[in-house]
Amino acid sequence: MNEELVELEAEIQKQFLIELSLILKDIKQTVAKYIQKNVYDSYSPIRYERHYQLIPSLDEIVTFNEGMVYINPALLDYKSAMDSSRSISDLVPYYLNNGHSDGGKGMYHTYPKRHFLEDAVEEINLKYGSIICQILNN
Fold first, then answer.
1. What residues are paired with 100 via a beta bridge?
2. More confident residue, 121 or 104
3. Buried b (16+ CB within 10 A) or exposed e, 54-87
4. What is the DSSP letter of 40?
5. What pTM was computed for the model?
6. DSSP one-letter string for 65-86
């Protein structure tokens, strides 16, 4: 009897990880859709060349009972316009989602809010009927 419970628990865990993997794939596709719609399709840059790195940088982490989709800055290669030796790969997704301004100094680009993360989270939570998705460290 005890061995059957162990086997059942192992099978449930296996099926759970399969389902979690499918949900994470769906989340990545949904975030990619909103990056395309809210960022790439919404404007054409004038002062810089777009590199289209955000969608390929979507990555995931799976732990025992949860998963996370994130933009991996290690997969991006954005350099500062002021100092080309300084990486700003961790800032670009944040600025694109939340907007950025230099306060009218005219030194840097001004980015309006694109809210691709909020739009993706809203669609995912509507699709799955509960709050399964949230934005962390945005």
1. 111
2. 121
3. bbebbeeeeeeeebebebbbeebebeeeeeeeeb
4. I
5. 0.85
6. S-EEEEE-GGG---B-SS-TTS
